[in-house]
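#struct-pred

JT: dropping the chains for the assembly here, can someone run the whole complex?
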Amino acid sequence: MTTRRKFLTTAAKSAAAAGGLATIAAPAIAQSSDPIIRWRLVSSFPKNIETLYGCAEVMSKALAASTDNKFQIQVFAAGEVVPGLQAFDAVANNTVQICHSASYYYTGKDTAFAFGAHAPFMLNTRQQAAWAYHGEGKKLLEDFYRGFNVVAFPGGNTTTQMGGWFRKEIKSVEDLKGLKFRISGLGGQVLTRMGAVPQQLGIGDIYPSLERGTIDAAEFNGPADDEKLGLYKVAPHYYYPGFWDGTSMQHFFINSAEWDKLPKHYQAALQSAAALANIDSIARYDVLNPPALRRLVAAGAKLHAFPADVLDSAYDTTMELYEELSAKNPTFKKFYDSQKAFQKDASLWNQVSEFAYDSTIIRELRR
Amino acid sequence: MTTRRKFLTTAAKSAAAAGGLATIAAPAIAQSSDPIIRWRLVSSFPKNIETLYGCAEVMSKALAASTDNKFQIQVFAAGEVVPGLQAFDAVANNTVQICHSASYYYTGKDTAFAFGAHAPFMLNTRQQAAWAYHGEGKKLLEDFYRGFNVVAFPGGNTTTQMGGWFRKEIKSVEDLKGLKFRISGLGGQVLTRMGAVPQQLGIGDIYPSLERGTIDAAEFNGPADDEKLGLYKVAPHYYYPGFWDGTSMQHFFINSAEWDKLPKHYQAALQSAAALANIDSIARYDVLNPPALRRLVAAGAKLHAFPADVLDSAYDTTMELYEELSAKNPTFKKFYDSQKAFQKDASLWNQVSEFAYDSTIIRELRR
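RK: done, full complex below.
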């Protein structure tokens, strides 16, 4: 028993003896003295992308509700405290206690960061969750983030993203040569090797750049979020699948010293609230994306699958890139080997389970 | 402020005045007097099916941890308090406060119960979650279960199940005629219409019945759970997909009077803990099923897809059944219409997102 607890227990006993509290206090009431804790959370996402920004609010509300408002986390949008892409650093250096961000934004620090969110041609949404919650990913990610003084819990997922908006059709891999494409991360590196010219642009600059033809294509997310940018008006060819974003998990990243100071039950409450936010995020996207896709197509978006030669060439290029990055960075290799082995088994299982079921449904709905 | 709270606040103030508690109590400490609550949970599942039984333990542990052990739920396996298939009734009549069960077990009360878990040829795992957490299913299910004095939260999912174990190959829909098949629920009704003879058997009776040839086939779950029954030795033909179990969600069902009596923060903590158990369950199955499938095939299980004529005939039979059940039961119709509309949009989105991504991965891994 800590000194504080012991003191409070003694105080409660005195109060009970003096005021007859015992009739209420025992055995049905536990006296507790939970600290009021107030944290600041920075999101990597702007408020107007409600699905992504909303994950932190869902978590924060669930946490406050389950701690009787004793553990309060105030959510700040990207740019309000630090720029969105500096959220992880703000946590690592304890400017704020917690952030909601995507691991792949930080591949500049270490290419292994990709695997916390997604890597091109790797896991799908359920596989990423399985690997991170119950597979080898759990310990790999824990140890990796701890190296930055950070504790992390999955806290959202955009699910498989689209391949983006193109001004002109892509008929073969040749059409990627010289293509100015707003894309970043490992996907950008793959496309560079295929002859495209990745561009870094803020979200607000995408529409005018496509309109003027300063860029030829841009990827953002899926229909629900893409719809807000209106890109179908200036780049109507909407490609799938986003092979560089087969899933895109976000995390709540927490400063490890702040985490270690929390009462154990606040830690547990935060962990459950993060799980709620994660499952809520996927469900929300799965409810919003289908009607958004319908509206986009009705408004003029032209859906295309990437040609097979683009996918094959992109896959081969990605595997070459992974071999090179593995040779350079043992941490990258450890993550890549783990996800690759998991994917091999999981993909076989998928072919006789959900993929087979989905194929059946698609076939029967078309008949 | 309730009388009890007011009294305790007054008592605390007196204690603070008398013993200098104020230095600790303000502003960093919130005095609270949370009741100790102990509930009993009955599971519909036996302990040796750890994945299914485990959901309740994951929830109960997370809940205890996040309430500093003040809200404790003791988990009982099927049969320890009531038989597994009476779990929902035990909650409805307040024999126990909470259970972990599958809604489709209770289609005998009302055929609409199917949609809380799964219905043949309806939603896949992510679609079921989306519909139940953020879609029309949320309110539909809430209102429906409230009619039985029950509050419910999703709390696990087996994901797409296999089509079961058959002593002989199924080469066409003709081979289903007279087939004695251990299967229940709406799937059993569909197969009856196709000429099969559904059998009700306890889990322990499946193996000897297949061995003796008393039955010709049996379905249970997916590889991880099926492996424990050893059915590949007596009925080696392992079919997919389980078109009657495209997903199989479980719920935590709670007596509504007990729920309404809970402090709000205990309600919130339980809700988050249930979400954690739900996501944990899917991740656990996704980690356990792939290697179990490999082991089963190595041990002699022969994997087969159901022939197209079986699937087509089963689909048509299911749609006829749904029309009849809709005509008889307006509640069934309400649920069915909602899931059918959701499936139509969601399946189109699936074809350009995860299904397209999974197809690409399968193709590239085979090249």
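JT: nice. Confidence is low (pLDDT under 50) at residues 1-27 of chain A. The CA atoms of residues 264 and 326 of chain A lie 38 Å apart.
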